[in-house]
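Field log, afternoon session.

UNIT: design team B
ACTIVITY: writing a sequence onto a fixed backbone
BACKBONE:
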């Protein structure tokens, strides 16, 4: 049976219950197989998926901001 390892894949920000932001929280992924570089083959796929989600979220935020600016100046 392979031993499970945890690989740090990103740093994220979390919002506390009181609304304050907790920055630089490490995000770990459970893995059981490491390659010669000390990472997993799935790690890159996971990082790409996280990046896709973040990009979509930021695109929506920018779009909403630009729409809001247009309505304020009209």
């Amino acid at each position: 049976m392979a031993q499970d390892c945890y690989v740090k894949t990103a740093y994220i920000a979390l919002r506390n219950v009181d609304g304050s932001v907790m920055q630089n929280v490490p995000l770990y992924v459970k893995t059981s197989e490491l390659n010669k570089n000390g990472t997993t083959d799935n790690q890159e796929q996971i990082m790409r998926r996280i990046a896709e989600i973040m990009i979509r979220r930021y695109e929506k935020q920018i779009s909403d901001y630009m729409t809001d600016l247009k309505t304020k100046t009209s």
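LOG NOTE: The helical segments are 41-73.
NEXT ACTIVITY: expression trials, pending approval
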